[in-house]
Specification:
- The chain is an alpha/beta fold.
- The chain has 2 domains: 119 residues, Rossmann fold; 96 residues, Winged helix-like DNA-binding domain superfamily/Winged helix DNA-binding domain (Arc Repressor Mutant, subunit A).
- It is 39% helix and 21% strand.
- The chain contains 8 helices and 12 strands.
- The strands form 3 sheets. It has a 5-stranded parallel beta sheet with strand order 2-1-3-4-5, sandwiched between helices.
- The longest helix has 15 residues.
- The radius of gyration is 19 Å and the shape is elongated.
- The protein starts with a strand and ends in a 7-residue tail after the last strand.
- The structure holds calcium ion.
Length: 232
Amino acid sequence: MAQIWTVEDEENISVLIMDIIASMGHESRAFIDADELARARRGSDVPDLLLLDLMLRGKSGFDILKLWKQDPQTRRVPVIILSARSTDTDKVRGLDLGAEDYITKPFSIRELKARINAALRRITPAATRLDLGPLVLEPDNRGVTVDDVAITLTQQEFELLHYMAQHAGHLLTRAQLLKDVWGYESETDASRTVDYHIRSLRKKLNDDAANPRFIQTVHGSGYRLQVEGDSP
Ligand code: CA
């Protein structure tokens, strides 16, 4: 169970978010502005995830985000911005300031759940080393070795490989990967994103799509990470 905090000044949205979080089995606390949030922080409490509205009374969400990313205690807490401001400038600014994700209001319940799950997944399994024989993942420092040789992956490639490694031996559909790794709700127009990242992963793992050592293509369905020596 995760502790999720929300800063939102519109009561109906705040109540909706709290309901969604409760339905996911997590604990939540809601704050209407930066002052309330700061009071909660004075108890040195730190949540696992912060959902942040941008337009608030007093300090803006951007101000709060800046403060959180400067504070060593809260710097690592992922922040998802929830805002009706949907311009690219706002998104870029939010992501530049260190937000993990940006959701435009109005959002669907499914979308919010998927994004929360994706953000939490990035932090929870972080400490566990995954040893699949020739392939080893160290999520703490995003380290990957193949036959004891270190390879460098982008954040997104690492997250994809990490998810596949956690589900080694299982067929993973593109839709499932998009939902769980990227937090997307629908497969539409985005399945190429998966194929693109699988291609670049294979390249870095020196894996041959026609005769794979690690990532198998399951035609018409998706992909499976299967390390040699494992029984199918
Ligand atoms: Ca607002």
